[in-house]
Automatic annotation (TrEMBL):
The chain crosses the membrane at residues 6-29, 68-93, 105-125, 137-161, 182-201, 216-238. It is a multi-pass membrane protein. Belongs to the sodium:neurotransmitter symporter (SNF) (TC 2.A.22) family. The keyword Membrane applies. Na(+) binds at residues 80, 84. The keyword Amino-acid biosynthesis does not apply. This is Sodium-dependent nutrient amino acid transporter 1. Pfam families: SNF. GO terms for cellular component: plasma membrane. Unusual broad substrate spectrum amino acid:sodium cotransporter that promotes absorption of the D isomers of essential amino acids. Neutral amino acids are the preferred substrates, especially methionine and phenylalanine. It comes from Bactrocera latifrons. It comes from the Eukaryota.
Amino acid sequence: NVYKDIVIITTMDSCSSIIAGCITFGILGNLAFKTGAADVASVVKGGAGLAFISYPDAIAKFEFIPQAFAVLFFLMLFVLGIGSTVGMGSCIVRVIRDRWVRAPNWALALSLAVLGFSVSIVYMTPGGQFVLNLVDFYGVSFTALILAIGELLAVGWVYGVKRFCADIEFMIGLKTGIYWRICWGLITPGLMLAVLIYTLIDLKPLTYKNVDYPHIAHVFGWCLSAIGLLQIPGWALYSICKQSKSAGLLNKLKAAAAPANTWGPLEQTMHEEYANQRRKFELQAKQRTNLQSAYDNLFG
């Protein structure tokens, strides 16, 4: 039951985040009070320092078995790291498997683990935190936001919220409420765009321990950002070039933005049923104007 799993996972994740935030800032507030600091920010070491310096230092001041809490805290960090690695690794393996179906899961997972371990060795060197801060700034912050906004727009307005909800109903037999349709189509992309704009406005030159990064480091960082950001226009151009050479540019764009003919369930009977539903959906879409299609995408 995918629906039940989603509700449980998202609820537990949200509750865990709230609890972790309350505990972390409660302890840091107490630490600031005991040290006489006027601001919590003055006692917090940003980045990895919060998890490996500030928080353990606060735990060491516990009067009741601080050793047990320290073990539990670092065990939690270990489990969190494993969980994050499995989640991100599974996404990469799944994408590769969608393209090359016969590729064995274990070989892909092993190759990805070896590659990730080899690349991350640099973070264990004396200058590892310096490199980690650089990669986090250029490779994750605004880059991830731009990619996420692009993904939301692609699913919500290129593939279509209506078609996405129809796929969900086809798979689990449940209709998607208007709340989720509006969130996926308008609210979530709008909020993420607002966060991106604020991030870019508030962007400050990158430093580490009040030391400016050299010019070559910024060049490397922008190259890292470019690799991530160029994925969207790069693969879009690749998809357009794959279309029939005799078709016009507009037809190429439409064909590139449409799902492949093989898109759908692997089981033959279900695939035929899904294909019939898709043809009916496309026929209805051709009979609407652009404004009607936009309204129907959210409320239809």
